[in-house]
Structure formats: C-alpha cells, structure tokens
Amino acid sequence: MALGLLKSIRVGLQKGAAGCTALHGVTASCQCRSDAKRPPSPGPQQHHRSRAKRSVSIAPEKVHDKTYLWARYREMKKLVYDLLPPGVCSLLNPATIYANNEISLGDVEIYGFDYDYTLAHYSSFLHTMIFNKAREILLEQYKYPKGIKSYEYIPSFAIRGLHYDVQKSLLMKIDAFHYIQSGTAYRGLQPVSDQEVIEMYGGTQHIPLHQMSDFYGKGPIVKQFMDIFSLPEMTLLSCVNDYFITHNIEFDPVHLFKDVTDSIKDVHVKGMMYQWIEKDMEKYILNGDETYAILNRLANSGKKLFLITNSPFSFVDKGMKHMVGKHWRELFDAVIVQADKPSFFTDRRKPFRRLDESGSLQWDRITSMEKGKIYRQVSKELLNARNQHVGLLSQTHISTRTTHMMLGSVVLDE
To answer: Is pLDDT of 11 > 80?
Structure first.
C-alpha cells in the first residue's frame, strides 16, 4: 500500500509539471533505505536521476516550480519509507508487476492468448539474430555502407512503446498526454538535450494528436513501436542513423526508416525467424513448463480458452508441442492462426477458413467453431462472447509471476 502511495505521488508530480516544465524520472522502486544507486543503462528506455536525499528543505518564497515539486516528492518519499517496517523490502519480488486496478479472475470466463511473447517467451538470442540478419539485408540488398556491420545489438537500448519521429530521426518516449519525456530523446545512439528537442518542435515538448497517428502508431510523422519484436528494429534504426551522422553522410531519413523497417519485415515475412526457432527450441523458447501449468489450470477450472496469432500453423504447432505436448489443441476451444492482427479486430470482410492437420486450407463453409480445429483468415464476428467476461492476454510474459497470478495471487502482468 505504501509503495502504491509513493507511485501515485510521483505520477501526480509528473503530471503537475507537464504544464510548466517536464521532469526527469526518478526510480521509485523500494531500496530498503539503502543509498545504492541503480547502474545507468544506455538509450531512451529510462532516464536517471540520483536517489533523493532523505532530508529536505523548501525555500518559503518564490521557489521555482520544478524545485518545489521535487522537494515535495522527496518529502513524501521519506514519509513512505518511514512507514515501511525494517526489512520489508526483502519480502518483495522485484520481478513482480502489481496492478493498480482490481480484477476478479473468477468472473473471467474466457481467456484469449497471443502466441509469440505470450505463450511462447523467447530468449535474448532471438533479438540478436533478428538484428544481425536485418543488418545483413541492409548491406547486401540495399547496399548500405559496410561500416554499419561494426554495430552490434544493444539489448538495453530500448523498450517497447517508444516513438520515432521519422523526419527528424528522433527516438523518444512520449507520455499519454503527448509530451516528450525529458531526457529520453535520442538521435542515433546519442542523447539529444531537452532544449534542442524543444527548439525542434517549435518551442514545446508537446506533439499534436494528428501527428501521433492512429491504431498502433502508424501515423504520417510519428511511429510508435508497440511490440517486443520492435526492440531490434529500434536499435538497428538508431545504429544506422548513428553511422550516417557520425560520418557526415547526407541521407533522407524517410528512406532510411523504410529500408530498415523493410529489412526487419523480411526476417519475419520470409520465415527466417521461424526457421531459427524450429531448429533449436531449447535455445530460443523459455518457460515452457509454466505455459503448460497455466493453460492446464485454466482448462481444469472450466474456463474457455482461445488462441489468436499472426504466426503460421506449422510454427505454432511445433512450439506448442514442445511446451505443452502433442495434445495441446484439446486445451483450446478455438485456435486461429495467421489472423493478420491488428486488422483482424476491425475487418469484417474476411471469412473463416479451416485448416486440415497438415495446415492446408479447406473449402467448406464455416458457420461455427469446433474445439480442436484450426482456423485462419477470419473476422471477429464468430468470436462474439456475448454476456461473457473476456480476458485477452496479448504479449504478456508467461513467467513465474504470471504463474502465481493464475494460481491465485493478485499479480497481473503487462
């Protein structure tokens, strides 16, 4: 409860500062009153600030807004720490994510899962392979400078949810109010000062909604990277930008963006990633036993399960057999592959198509969904769960913490 209060105070301070001056982030994680600082990581995934001192003094007259807000934050943080019994922090799992809203899992009758990074959680080796292959495509097919080959994948550089201004070649973190967060803007691999960012956007850190785009951030100016597979893409974009900038090579940022994204797309569309995983599932797929435990617990509790994925059936089938067993389809009431999300949720024109055991399309008309069958090219109409509570887990890490969630703890993932 105390930690939740501290987080609320911090969020309130940041929102309060949005109208006057943006604030650098402060890690509000519990440190058991230790003065240890978290080591800095490169990239816009987080910005750092020294841990606040526990003694504060506030000037009574004409205090700058930013100074006043941080002083208030430090004061309230001290109060929260004083509320915590000694040693309580050692009882908290740092890998756990706590929800700030309550949900009764007993009221959820239908659980929907994505496959990649939900049922199948991949090791860090996969992102390195995607980065390296896309970099190779840039060099061989798009004839980019050979010097780009010297750049390696940086796992800690970015997180999903970052925005990229295509025309300015700027990778940054933008909040829910469309403000660029201070200290998060990068051009290439180098940070861009807050003052320079403000000048680039006409004296403000606010980006208008019409530039922020539509669903999944596919707008005309600013692109948002929403899924975990975007991590190597953001890193490669920044590395290529960095090479051109540091070598004073003129380039069109729109062309560079398209070439990099097309190279990443080829890795997925041409099945390269699927081949790597299928050849060595032990290397790339993690926590398969936990996936089985969660699915089995839900099915045995009478819950309805469905799977919707953009991945092809043969790939999903091999992965699920590896994690769950050859009878994995018996756990699901509906399995939909190559769903073409996100348009799957809005396109009503595509009918269901059934696949046979080998993954070949069938020609019969589909009027209802059968348990254990595989479908593709579908609309959402037949998935109408009327008068039901539906839980959709999309790109949720299946790990120890989510296993605990399903087994009874009130612990929710992203």
So the answer is: no
Give the three-class secondary structure for 72. Answer: helix
Tell me, what's the pLDDT at 71? 80
- Shortest CA distance to 335 belongs to which of 119, 121, 117? 119
Nearest CA among 89, 91, 111 for reference residue 6: 89
Whether the Cβ atoms of residue 245 and residue 188 lie closer than 8 Å to each other: yes
Instruction: Please state the rounded mean pLDDT for residues 16-20.
Output: 42
Confidence check: pLDDT of 203 > 90: yes
Confidence band, pLDDT 50/70/90 cuts, at residue 99 = low
Candidates 264, 30, 302; CA nearest to 142 is 264
DSSP state letters, 227-267: STTHHHHHHHHHHHHHHHHHTT----HHHHHHHHHHHHHHH
Over 90: is that where the pLDDT of 34 sits?
no
Name residue 335's beta-bridge partners.
Answer: 307, 374
Q: How many CB atoms lie within 10 A of CB 9?
A: 18
Distance of CA 62 to the CA centre of its chain: 42
| Strand (E) or helix (H) holding 74 | helix 65-83
Rounded to the nearest 10°, the torsion over CA 137, 143, 148, 149 is 50
Give the active site residue among 116, 165, 242, 333: 116
If you average pLDDT over residues 1-17, what whole number do you get?
Answer: 47
Confidence of residue 156 (pLDDT cuts 50, 70, 90): very high
Distance in angstroms between the alpha carbons of the first and the last residue of the chain:
20
> Percentage of the chain with pLDDT > 70?
67
394/139 Cα distance (integer angstroms): 34
116 catalytic residue (yes or no): yes
pLDDT digits (tens, 9 = 90+) for 63-76: 556 777 778 778 87
For residue 364, give Cα distances in angstroms to 52, 65, 347, 358. 66, 67, 21, 16
Confidence (pLDDT) at 87: 64
364 is a catalytic site residue: no
Q: Check 35, 114, 262, 317 and give the catalytic one.
A: 114
Residues 6+ apart with CB under 8 A from 223: 163, 164, 166, 213, 217, 257
Per-residue tokens: 184? 């998060």
Task: Write down the pTM of the prediction.
Answer: 0.68
In the DSSP assignment, the letter for residue 85 is: P
Q: What angle do CA 103, 105, 106 make, to 5 degrees?
A: 125
Confirm if 108 and 387 have CB atoms less than 8 A apart: no
* Token pair of 127 as six digits: 């992102």
